[in-house]
Amino acid sequence: MLRIKNLKCSYGSIVAVHGVSLSVKKGELISIIGANGAGKSTLLLAICGLLKNWEGEIVFQDKDLKGMSPPAIVRSGISMVPEGRQIFSPLSVMDNLKMGAYTMYRKGLKSQVEEDFDMVMEMFPILRERAHQLAGTLSGGEQQMLAIGRALMARPRLLVLDEPSMGLAPKIVEMIFNVITTLQSQGVTILLVEQNARAALKISHRGYVLETGKMVLQGSADELLVDDDVKRAYLGRDYGDFYDGRDA
Amino acid sequence: MDDNKKKQWTENTIFLVVILGCGLGVDNTYYLQIMTFIGINTLLALGLNMLMGYAGQVSLGHAAFYGIGAYTTAILSGTYGISPWAALVCAVSCAVFIAFVVGLPTLKLSGYYLGMGTLGFGMIVNILFREWSTVTGGSSGFVGIPMLEAGPVSFMSGRNYFFLVWMVVLVAVLLCRRILSSRMGRALRSIHDGENASLAVGVNTHFLKLQIFMFSAALGAVAGFLYAHFVMFISPESFGFMVSVKMVTMVVIGGMASVWGALLGASLLTLLPEVLHGFAEYEMIIFGLILMVVMIFMPQGLTRGLLDIYEHSRKRDKRHGN
């Protein structure tokens, strides 16, 4: 569904992504993990067209995304839940969701928008309660739900999430990840970018590990979860592991 | 949803009643004249408010569109004797076209840079009014703008002109509110915080800003048209940099992102200089002080500030009542 080949992105003379390749098949849940500054967000910005100067190839459903504007990319079926949520704080919750359906209204699909409202409200009942409240007054977790709801309103074929767990309480993170799993089981293809590697890999089919702009590892999520390098670098080790073989 | 519509209807009706009341109840020509100026300034503030208050784009050259509207109708109807109503159409189209040409590159800028870009544009237009004296009358101004007539109705009298201006304001208010509650209005308010998220939901932000820039230019041109035929004499000073600044002040003082804020800001900035005439040379000092006090105590503008005071006192009354 999405194929990236040899992608290079740079900000001025600083190269953030060096020749990354990856692929996402229809219906898959793929996670990209890596530390701060590994180039994860840059990669997503390139996919969504928010970053212009990249080299290489990004193909979504046999369509080359090179040179396409962000709105055109959204219309082709990719929706992003941006890093740090970026909900529209001066707008009400309802209006935020309507904004998510911006391209749907443009196509004149009003009745579908109504359906999608109900779908999102069912998924996040708290948003129904808060429908007329300004989005800026929501808590962090509610804002994240709103950001996901907003992205779903465009009926994406590929949903891209940038660090949905950032800054949230563990309980909320669990809930958000449950929603992501549910969406995947409903047939939405998902590309998840996370620092919270263990949680992300647990729900994913496959994973990619990005390090200083290079793809250093890839494989099925189960393999990565037990991979020693991944464990050392991203998952943290148990206290027991650390002393194994030393004090014995 | 419906509550909101009902509220809007009530507000609009009250507004209409106030206009009728002022127009029919006031006989003093001076007061009618001041209120007409308030109406013209409200149009300017409304247009700029859409751009600044909602879309978050600062323009420091908006008086240029005001001037383009005024000079286009002055030249066409004064020099060439074309009907002022036809000149109005030309004035608006001209302003919209120029806004398109200027906005295309400048709206790619943001923040201070956009301010600088529009500032430059405003100055160029003003120099044009001043130096192209064979057409515009130069710095001594343009004399001989005809008065407005519509069939048997003459707008010579202060009262008729008052009604003309305020009916246009009413239509503009309705139009702005219609736009704001539409899909376009939501998108407009969404880019206020930053454009990336809006782009990410599929809004073509550059085109949207361009559209609203053209819309506010059109309102400016209409205001210029009404001004020219009211005063019947125009000169470059009326459309200079200070006027652009005054327009920005109206929007900020009245309260950004509020249609009634534009009205309040325009009223205050038109009335204050009149009221402060008595203070002679201290006028500007007092004027500046009032603006400072408003900004310090009501940083969200007068509309929000007054509403807050009202809600606060109502809450307190409730507490005391129990």
Strand content of chain A: 25-35%
> Separation of termini of chain A?
50 Å
Determine the CATH topology of the largest domain in chain A: Rossmann fold
Broad shape of chain B: globular
Instruction: Specify Rg of chain A, calculated over alpha carbons.
Output: 19 Å
Number of distinct helices of chain A: 12
**Rounded Rg of chain B:** 20 Å
- Tell me which protein chains meet in the greatest interface and how many residues each side has: A-B, 28 and 18 residues
List the secondary-structure elements of chain A in sequence, H or E.
Answer: EEEHEEHEHHHHHEHEHEEHHH
Oligomer: heterodimer
Order of helices and strands of chain B: HHHHHHEEEHHHHEHHHH
How many H/I helices of chain B? Answer: 14
* CATH homology superfamily name of the largest domain in chain A: P-loop containing nucleotide triphosphate hydrolases
Q: What class would the helix/strand composition of chain B place it in?
A: mainly alpha
Which structural class matches the secondary elements of chain A? alpha/beta
E-strand count of chain A: 10
The average pLDDT value of chain B, as a whole number, equals 87
Mean pLDDT of chain A: 85
Detail the poorly predicted runs of chain B: none
What's the helical proportion of residues of chain A? 40-55%
Major beta sheet of chain B, specifics?
A: 2 strands, antiparallel
Protein name (chain A): Amino acid/amide ABC transporter ATP-binding protein 2, HAAT family
Keywords (chain A): Amino-acid transport, ATP-binding, Nucleotide-binding, Transport
InterPro entries (chain A): AAA+_ATPase (IPR003593), ABC_branched_ATPase_LivF/BraG (IPR030660), ABC_transporter-like_ATP-bd (IPR003439), ABC_transporter-like_CS (IPR017871), BCAA_Transport_ATP-bd_LivF (IPR052156), P-loop_NTPase (IPR027417)
GO molecular function (chain A): ATP binding; ATP hydrolysis activity; branched-chain amino acid transmembrane transporter activity
